């Protein structure tokens, strides 16, 4: 008995070591952070699990919110504060615990029997193990490790998507505030025209028709201003939602302008290495590569598991006692419980595993092709967005300014009226608005490019703009990793 | 003050054009004018004598005598005319200027005119008002082939009738005249003429109008009515030379109209008679005194007066917007509109905004605000008492005592004898502000009239 128990405990210790079955103390967050290295703004951190660190983070967030929130800070806040991300990270911790649970050796079962007949009393004690669990432990342990790596990669991708979403929401919010300022200016100009027209009509210089035309301009500008104001509020809400803010924290301010465009084309990211970078850096490809490795490895034990899934090893120690004499007889022995592979020789299971490997390999190839394509097209979109924004800034706006100047010269010479001057001021402001939108679109394209090169698939073209208009639209999870 | 320098003779003001003497061996060398100033009258060096005219801001084309024939050479070409100081217009003209040089001949002269076309399209010259052989009348297609670019045609006829005439193209006429192609033709009487008086000074000019976008340089040739540059000889006030006269002199002024509207030409301080048209001298019995004569489209008017009132007298077209420079033709009237509280707000949106027109347009004359490049201001011209607030078909008729016969120089501003100028009333001011009859925007005596409200309850009471 003593010898046996020593042997058993030695075996158990070896198996526990083989399984490395311990729960990660931070729920794998440091692993996620490891994956995100260099892909997030400096000092960006994932939310901590302990209460004291969380308190510290809130203090930090409140300090950040005292200043106009720039894009990087918005991302930092969102990472620390977005409950959706916290849900995902918590689930990662849950999955980790499940992993540990899965590769911890199943508790042996002890069955006790107590029998009696006319002359005997029998006590039966059985300690049994599922043997296959033991045999496959190294495989399962490896597989669970990979599963966790995948889940970590997935969480990292989700984090990057949240960061990109937050960045987009920030760009949309700042641009919308700029648009609101421009619309306010346009409305001011139209309102002045309307007021002047009213005064013209009072002294008899304008007919009702002429006055009505100017008032119509004012009305149109007022409606446009209301829409711009709503759009600005909604864009801001989007951002606040991403950053996980509510209550007092909603009074945060934003910078008055978008970041300036890169001055020259040579300051832009080159497109030459875009595909290679995407293949090397993208987390979704990493996850799929891992997935393929896992399924290849899993192929090895799939059949064995299917065939011998129920092998049981039982140690039994029976004691029978002669009731009359009190003489006891002990039987000790091992029992092996082996299913007969008469029907299922594991061929279905191994075929399934083989096909799974093929499917995963094909999936990796498909994703690699998509990643290459996304790298190319995101870069092209980024480059074109810069060309367009640069054109707006260096050609269109100066031209609008020139038109504005020439218009005032025409007003000076009494060639045109003050209403035409105000109308020109409105259309100059419209040009500023268009340039701002082009500048925003460049930074949105830049965000998509970063994601396509280092993280995962960016949302389809135009999704950012749609999201800005429709705050209810959720950020669709991209490219759900397979295999678990 | 505008420089108005007279040239001692036409020869010094002109330059031989860069035309190969070989290529034009048989032609008189064309004479090109580079200045838009008024040239001194060209005393006839040969041929029959006559009293030459002074072409306002123009010149007379020299000729050569060839076996008793007066030979002239007109070159139709693109020119840049200085219409006002700093305001240049791309035009088509003759021999360096628009209008072209004045051709002066004497009744009975045999005249041969070489016309070289250096325009990008065909042209002709019509000798407006002349009696001449049909084939010399210059209507392209009707009387002669159009003169292609690069070609030289020759016109030859006898100047049969004394009078004031003009020449202009009759080939793509609308475009070519809208571009400034025109010139004066004066046929002086041979000796004394019973209906034509001898005069001390004889001025001549053509009326022309252009449509030039503010900031542009080339007239819009498709414009029919909405012209904005109104000129005497393609010059606009204050760039038009004043007409000067010695006290008591008889002065003749010849005006031709090649615009698309009529111009009531008006002189101050004197009355005149129309002594001739392009049909010839008006019989004395048919003349009557005027201070304004309407010069209809395509007409010439020759007026005469005795300059017997010393001073600087306005002389202008009486259509008031023809004495204005370029301006917008659909700018609403801003007079009397309260701008309180608005100017600052407008300046926040348009920083360079200045309030204009609230009191009328006179401010324009005083304000020096940037205009589009190469734009002729609406009203300008400084006088001894301030801004003259005119532009376009306006100049002055300056009568001075003791002016030498050949002295056409601007004598400067007239020094009015003391006490003869309108001045501020020095007595007691009006004791109270005169009440307005009505408030602005209110019809007199009808402040409470309302439209009947149709279908309202009132109708049923
Ligand atoms: Cu007129």
From TrEMBL, chain A:
Keywords of the record: Coiled coil, Signal
InterPro entries according to UniProt: MdtP/NodT-like
Family annotation (PROSITE patterns): PROKAR_LIPOPROTEIN (PS51257)
Superkingdom assignment: Bacteria
Annotated signal peptide: 1-23
Biased composition (Low complexity): 462-484
Region (Disordered): 453-484
SUPFAM superfamilies hit by this protein: Outer membrane efflux proteins (OEP)
Coiled coil residues, start to end: 209-238
Name the record gives this protein: TolC family protein
Organism: Comamonas piscis
TrEMBL record, chain B:
InterPro entries per the UniProt record, alphabetical: Cu-oxidase-like_N, Cu-oxidase_C, Cu-oxidase_fam, Cu_oxidase_Cu_BS, Cupredoxin, TAT_signal
Sorted UniProt keywords: Metal-binding, Oxidoreductase, Signal
Region Disordered, annotated ranges: 433-461
Subcellular localization(s) per the UniProt record: Periplasm
Domain of life: Bacteria
GO cellular component: periplasmic space
Gene Ontology molecular function: copper ion binding; oxidoreductase activity
Domain Plastocyanin-like: 90-190, 219-331
Presence of the UniProt keyword Transferase in the record: no
Leader peptide range in chain numbering: 1-25
Cross-referenced PANTHER family: MULTI-COPPER OXIDASE
Protein name: Copper oxidase
């Amino acid at each position: 008995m003593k010898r046996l128990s020593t042997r058993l405990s030695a075996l158990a210790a070896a198996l526990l070591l083989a399984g490395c079955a311990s729960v990660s103390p931070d729920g794998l967050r440091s692993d996620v952070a490891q994956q995100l290295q260099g892909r997030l703004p400096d000092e960006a951190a994932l939310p901590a699990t302990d209460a004291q660190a969380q308190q510290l983070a809130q203090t930090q967030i409140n300090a950040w919110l005292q200043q106009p929130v720039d894009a990087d800070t918005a991302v930092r806040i969102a990472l620390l504060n977005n409950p959706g991300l916290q849900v995902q990270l918590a689930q990662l911790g849950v999955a980790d615990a499940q992993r540990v649970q899965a590769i911890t050796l199943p508790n042996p079962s002890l069955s006790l029997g107590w029998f009696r007949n006319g002359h005997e009393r029998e006590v039966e004690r059985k300690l049994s193990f599922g043997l296959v669990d033991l045999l496959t432990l190294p495989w399962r342990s490896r597989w669970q490790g990979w599963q966790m790596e995948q889940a970590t990669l997935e969480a990292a991708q989700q984090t990057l998507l949240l960061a990109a979403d937050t960045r987009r929401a920030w760009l949309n919010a700042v641009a919308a505030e700029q648009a609101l300022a421009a619309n306010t200016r346009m409305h001011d100009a139209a309102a002045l025209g309307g007021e002047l027209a009213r005064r013209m009509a009072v002294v008899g210089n304008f007919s009702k028709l002429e006055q009505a035309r100017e008032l119509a301009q004012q009305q149109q500008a007022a409606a446009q201003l209301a829409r711009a104001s709503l759009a600005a509020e909604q864009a801001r809400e989007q951002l606040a939602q991403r950053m996980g803010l509510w209550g007092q924290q909603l009074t945060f301010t934003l910078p008055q302008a978008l970041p300036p465009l890169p001055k020259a084309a040579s300051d832009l990211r080159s497109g030459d290495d875009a595909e290679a970078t995407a293949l090397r850096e993208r987390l979704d490809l990493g996850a799929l590569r891992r997935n393929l490795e896992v399924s290849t490895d899993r192929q090895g034990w799939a059949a064995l598991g299917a065939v011998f899934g129920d092998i049981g090893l039982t140690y039994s120690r029976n004691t029978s006692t002669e009731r009359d004499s009190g003489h006891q007889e002990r039987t000790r022995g091992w029992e092996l419980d082996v299913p007969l592979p008469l029907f299922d020789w594991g061929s279905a299971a191994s075929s399934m595993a083989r096909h799974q490997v093929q499917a995963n390999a094909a999936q990796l190839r498909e994703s690699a092709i998509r990643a290459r394509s996304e790298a190319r097209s995101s870069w092209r979109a980024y480059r074109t967005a810069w060309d367009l924004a640069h054109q707006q800034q260096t050609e269109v706006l100066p031209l609008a300014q020139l038109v504005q100047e020439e218009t005032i010269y025409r007003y000076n010479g009494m060639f045109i009226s003050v209403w035409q001057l105000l109308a020109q001021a409105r259309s100059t402001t419209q040009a500023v608005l268009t340039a701002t939108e082009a500048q925003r679109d460049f930074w949105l394209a830049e965000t998509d490019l970063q994601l396509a090169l280092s993280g995962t698939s960016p949302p389809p073209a135009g999704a950012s703009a749609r999201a800005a208009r429709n705050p209810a639209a959720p950020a669709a999870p991209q490219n759900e990793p397979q295999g678990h | 003050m505008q420089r108005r320098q007279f040239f001692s003779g036409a020869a010094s003001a002109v330059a031989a054009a860069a035309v190969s003497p070989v290529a034009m061996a048989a032609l008189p060398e064309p004479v090109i004018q580079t200045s838009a100033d008024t040239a001194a009258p060209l005393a006839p060096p040969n041929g029959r004598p006559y009293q030459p005219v002074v072409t306002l801001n123009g010149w007379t084309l020299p000729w050569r005598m060839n076996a008793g024939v007066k030979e002239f050479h007109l070159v139709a070409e693109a020119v840049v005319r200085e219409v006002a100081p700093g305001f240049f217009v791309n035009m088509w003209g003759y021999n360096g200027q628009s209008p072209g040089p004045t051709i002066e001949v004497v009744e009975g002269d045999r005249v041969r005119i070489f016309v070289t076309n250096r325009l990008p399209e065909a042209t002709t010259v019509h000798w407006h008002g002349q009696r001449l052989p049909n084939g010399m009348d210059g209507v392209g297609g009707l009387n002669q082939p159009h003169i292609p670019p690069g070609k030289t045609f020759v016109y030859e006829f006898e100047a049969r009738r004394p009078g004031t005439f003009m020449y202009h193209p009759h080939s793509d006429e609308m475009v070519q005249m809208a571009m400034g192609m025109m010139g004066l033709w004066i046929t002086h009487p041979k000796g004394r003429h019973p209906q034509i008086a001898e005069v001390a000074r004889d001025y001549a000019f053509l009326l022309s109008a252009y449509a030039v976008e503010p900031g542009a340089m080339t007239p819009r040739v498709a414009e029919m009515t909405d012209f904005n540059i109104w000129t005497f000889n393609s010059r606009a006030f204050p760039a038009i030379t004043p007409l000067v006269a010695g006290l008591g002199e008889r002065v003749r002024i010849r005006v031709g109209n090649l615009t698309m509207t009529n111009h009531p030409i008006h002189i101050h301080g004197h009355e005149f008679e129309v002594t001739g048209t392009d049909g010839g001298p008006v019989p004395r019995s048919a003349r009557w005194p005027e201070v304004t004569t309407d010069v209809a489209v395509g007409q010439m008017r020759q007026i005469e007066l005795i300059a017997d009132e010393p001073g600087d007298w306005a002389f202008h077209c009486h259509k008031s917007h023809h004495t204005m420079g370029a301006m917008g033709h659909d700018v609403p009237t801003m007079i009397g509109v309260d701008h309180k509280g608005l100017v600052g707000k407008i300046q926040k949106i348009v920083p360079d905004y200045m309030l204009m027109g609230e009191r009328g347009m006179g401010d324009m004359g005083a304000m020096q605000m940037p205009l589009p490049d190469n734009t002729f201001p609406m009203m300008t011209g400084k006088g001894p008492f301030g801004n003259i607030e005119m532009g376009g078909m306006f100049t002055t008729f300056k009568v001075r005592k003791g002016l030498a016969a050949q002295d056409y120089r601007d004598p400067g501003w007239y020094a009015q004898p003391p006490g003869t100028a309108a001045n501020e009333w020095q007595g007691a001011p009006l004791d109270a502000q005169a009440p307005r009859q009505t408030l602005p925007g209110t019809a007199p005596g009808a402040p409470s009239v309302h439209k009947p409200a149709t279908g309202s309850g009132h109708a049923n009471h």
